[in-house]
Design goal:
Shape: globular
Number of strands: 0
Structural class: mainly alpha
Number of helices: 6
Strand content: under 5%
Number of domains: 1
Helix content: over 70%
Order of helices and strands: HHHHHH
Radius of gyration: 12 Å
């Protein structure tokens, strides 16, 4: 998994999350990020990893995104790891 591919997956995750009212509201509530924070950080690797981690934290969301992005769930986990997610964690 290249960093470029991981970033592309994460940017599709952003489009998916922010196009769904329930997901967007839950992400904002859990992350504490405001709209300005999101705009400022959308290009940062750790923020992109947090979007993928958010989806991975609830299997129905992960599966819905997997279908939306036409990516296997395993690919999403690999993208998360390529962006620095999960250091010291097992998934």
């Amino acid at each position: 998994m290249t960093t470029d591919h991981a970033q592309a997956v994460a940017l599709r995750a952003a489009a998916f999350i922010f196009s769904e009212d329930d997901l967007r509201d839950r992400f904002i509530a859990l992350s504490g990020a405001g709209v300005d924070d999101i705009r400022a950080r959308i290009g940062e690797q750790d923020f992109l990893a947090s979007l993928l981690e958010f989806l991975m934290g609830h299997e129905p969301d992960l599966m819905a995104f997997s279908s939306y992005a036409e990516e296997k769930p395993e690919t999403i986990v690999k993208a998360w790891r390529a962006l620095g997610g999960g250091e010291g964690q097992e998934w």
